[in-house]
From TrEMBL:
GO terms for biological process: carnitine metabolic process; fatty acid beta-oxidation; long-chain fatty acid transport. This is carnitine O-palmitoyltransferase. The keyword Transport applies. Belongs to the carnitine/choline acetyltransferase family. It comes from Ctenopharyngodon idella.
Length: 780
């Protein structure tokens, strides 16, 4: 009870002698310091808004313009061409200024207007420059004079150190491609997937759509593009993610893993302490906009940072027809789950972020808490893993008031969610490959009730110190979460570190209030729905087949020596592997990004092309190697071109998706769009980019290699493949499919991927095959 009394700032009692007031100066001091932190954050936000508002100029440039105007006026020259005099005529006489004072005020107003006009002009010029994308299609070493001049101008306008969101207003809007171009690209992409009769049918459907409905829908879409910041992103978020009524676990959420070879500490509480601290340090950088804007590697071209805004303090709340993303401005606590109990853990005290050792101390208190779960509490998280509509109905009826609402608010308003898992995971034991697969499944779905899948992301810390995360997809795409996780792993290990006995560094203030156990009143109706949701989620989780493996034979260094894009190489290996696995080709999804544009998210690269299919068929037919090499390079160039088109707003699928949404709003049916949008992606792929390699010293510490992350299969009879190109000598693969499909097997497909990678490298470099034979121990 001592802690509870300290938390009260003042108490008073009424007696016959009068009112006796007792003040708790410690509590008042904490209230003061907490308020001081809030005001500092407000001031910081205001300062950043001003700096962003005048970018690419600086606030100090205003003073330079004022001094320049005053100096020219002092030399009896009028730089305003009479505007200053007109401004002076309109200054109210009530100001009672002298003639000289009115002139000075008029000059100040003119200088400010001129400064603002220059800012708008510079911003417009920067937006025009960032709208130029032809540089992406030029070959290395063959850069045109136009591109060189363009690059120089971009550097000049981007010279001052920008904040995280400084470029947002200068980024161009995503253009609507001509409908004729999109339809031609679509037909080209599906040609290798149809026989002659099937392709002719698609050509007729496409032609009918273009002549009848297509141009009408296109006009509405162009109207939206003029009005909206991004004509795709809001509809993509709503209709692809938030309106889906199926479980988001496995189907939408994805995961990120810890280091492959090392675990910085085996102390669960310590690892949680450093991980939570690192995440809050990252949040501080986001709030202060101290993170450097993301750029295309090797260039000064900025990428949109809008997705960072909802990284923390965000929850997807269920609705009967559509979910809603709720974001809170700030949160000083995290929600923690351990052995069926939920806790609220404050990580700030009196405006101060607790030290890693103090957070470890608080986590250990949770681990040592012997109290059992209250009735219905243990598996409550299954509601977020099942179908969305039942969860929305239960939430509305039983979690809208009272103790349940207060506890649910603590989870939903938390900065993020933490699960202290009582299992041990990682590449360990006598069969590390099987354990890696189990590790992936644990992060993807866990026990189906020990994660809160609605949170923007949930951190999982295992009993042996291994960690990972599960991220909800609607608010952001994988590169945003990957950037966060890279910073977290590097800060945890190299910046915060651990003592020799595996504990966090720092001191502990023993007077810290203990973590608050959340209370629930779960009636039988809710417990019944929890059981039903758990049954749905468990069936989905049991059906997922995951296989994670590091490919060590070579990496991007060896591929680049062959003068080929590593991503194109991997994509063609996946095409070869799929053909060997299934004996046919399929519609292939590769995620690209459109963050060159404001509020851009993703676009689809249709990696299965006429060129890739021709190459695979010739290679499998045993044709001449030199001929196959030419086809290989031609297919790789085609893939690179498709990727560039997707990045620069000339993709296929987002345009067709938006045309489909417009048709639904208009209440018209299109057989063409209906068929296109229902085509299954039997091979869904994504590369997890490494964006902060400078944080990891792989030369001196090669063991600190991240495993990357993965996702569940998109089609019931297909594969999901994620890969991360780590350093120069390793590529990690994550393969998923479903046990219920007899034609898919993640381990078999993983073997096919490895073999395809080796065969393609042997095709490009015959010496590689001999080197592999002479060093068989290198193969995994």
């Amino acid at each position: 009870m001592a802690e509870a009394h300290q938390a009260v700032a003042f108490q008073f009692t009424i007696s016959p002698e009068g009112i006796n007031l007792h003040l708790s100066y410690q509590a008042l001091n904490q209230i003061y310091l907490s308020g001081l932190r809030s005001w500092k954050k407000r001031i910081s936000r205001i300062k950043n808004r001003i700096i962003k508002g005048v970018y690419p100029a600086s606030p100090s440039s205003w003073l330079f313009v004022v001094i320049a105007i005053m100096a020219t006026m002092y030399m009896q020259s009028d730089p305003s061409m009479g505007l200053i005099a007109k401004i002076r005529e309109r200054i109210p006489l009530s100001l009672s200024l002298s003639t000289q004072g009115q002139t000075m005020l008029s000059a100040l107003l003119f200088s400010t207007l001129l400064w603002l006009s220059l800012i708008l002009a510079l911003r417009f010029c920067l937006k025009l420059l960032l709208s130029y994308h032809r540089w992406m299609f030029e070959q290395h070493g063959c850069i045109s004079t136009k591109t060189k001049v363009w690059a120089t101008l971009v550097r000049l306008l981007s010279g001052r150190k920008p904040l995280l969101y400084s470029y947002q207003t200068s980024l161009p809007h995503l253009p609507v491609p001509p409908i004729k171009d999109t339809l031609e690209k679509y037909l080209e992409s599906v040609k290798p997937l149809h026989d002659s009769a099937g392709f002719q049918r698609m050509k007729r459907l496409t032609a009918e759509f273009e002549k009848s409905l297509g141009n009408r829908l296109q006009r509405y879409l162009k109207l939206k593009a003029l009005w909206a910041t991004n004509y795709v992103s809001d509809w993509w978020e709503e209709y692809v993610y938030l309106r889906s009524r199926s479980p988001i676990m496995v189907n939408s959420n994805y995961y990120g893993m810890d280091f492959l070879y090392v675990t910085p500490t085996a102390n669960q509480a310590a690892r949680a302490g450093n991980t939570i601290t690192a995440l809050f340090l990252y949040r501080r950088k986001v709030n202060r906009e101290e993170l450097n804007p993301s750029r295309i590697p090797g260039t000064v071209i900025p990428l949109c940072a809008a997705q960072c805004e909802r990284m923390f303090n965000t929850t997807r709340t269920p609705g009967e027809e559509t979910d809603v993303l709720q974001h809170w401005q700030d949160s000083e606590f995290v929600a923690v789950y351990h052995r069926g109990r939920y806790f609220k853990l404050w990580v700030y005290q009196a405006g101060r972020l607790l030290s890693p050792r103090e957070i470890q101390y608080q986590i250990q208190r949770i681990l040592d808490d012997p109290s059992p779960p209250s009735p219905g509490e243990e598996k409550l998280g299954a509601l977020t893993a099942g179908n969305r509509t039942p969860w929305a109905q239960v939430r509305k009826q039983f979690f809208s008031s009272g103790v349940n609402k207060r506890s649910l608010d603590c989870i939903e308003k938390a900065a993020f969610f933490v699960t202290l898992d009582d299992q041990e995971e990682g590449m360990m034991g006598e069969d590390p490959s099987v354990n890696l697969d189990r590790y992936a499944k644990s992060l993807l779905h866990g026990k189906c009730y020990d994660r809160w899948f609605d949170k923007s992301f949930s951190v999982v810390v295992y009993k042996n110190g291994k960690n990972g995360l599960n991220a909800e997809h609607s608010w952001a795409d994988a590169p945003i979460v990957s950037h966060l996780w890279e910073f977290t792993l590097a800060t945890d290990t190299f910046h915060l570190g651990y003592t020799p006995d595996g504990n966090c560094r720092g001191e502990v203030e023993r007077s810290l209030l203990p973590p608050q156990r959340l209370s629930w009143d779960i009636p039988l109706e809710v417990q019944t729905q929890v059981s039903e949701s758990l049954a749905v989620a468990q069936a989905l989780a049991d059906d997922v087949d995951c296989h994670v493996f590091p490919f060590r034979e070579f990496g991007k260094g060896c591929i680049k020596k062959m003068k080929m894009s590593p991503d194109s190489f991997v994509q063609l290996a996946l095409q070869l592997a799929y053909y060997r696995d299934r004996g046919t080709f399929c519609l292939t999804y590769e995620a690209s990004m459109t963050r060159l544009f404001r509020e851009g998210r993703t676009e689809t690269v249709r990696s299965c092309s006429n060129e890739s299919c021709a190459f695979v068929l010739e290679l499998e037919a045993g044709e001449d190697r030199e001929h196959c090499r030419k086809l290989f390079r031609k297919a790789a160039e085609k893939h690179q071109n498709l990727y560039r088109l997707a990045m620069t707003g000339s993709g296929i699928d987002r345009h067709l998706f938006c045309l489909y949404v417009v048709s639904k709003y208009l209440g018209v049916e299109s057989p063409f769009l209906k068929e296109v949008l229902s085509e299954p992606w039997r091979l869904s792929t994504s590369q997890t980019p490494v964006q902060q390699m400078e944080l990891f010293d792989l030369v001196n510490h090669p063991e600190f290699i991240s495993l990357g992350g993965g996702f569940g299969p998109v089609a019931d009879d297909g594969y999901g493949v994620s890969y991360i190109i780590m350093g120069e000598e390793m590529i990690n693969f994550h393969v998923s499919c479903k046990h219920s499909c007899t034609e898919t097997d993640s381990h078999k497909f993983g073997f096919q991927i490895s073999q395809a990678m080796l065969d393609l490298m042997s095709l490009l470099n015959p010496d590689f095959k001999e080197a592999t034979k002479s060093n068989p121990g290198k193969q995994s």
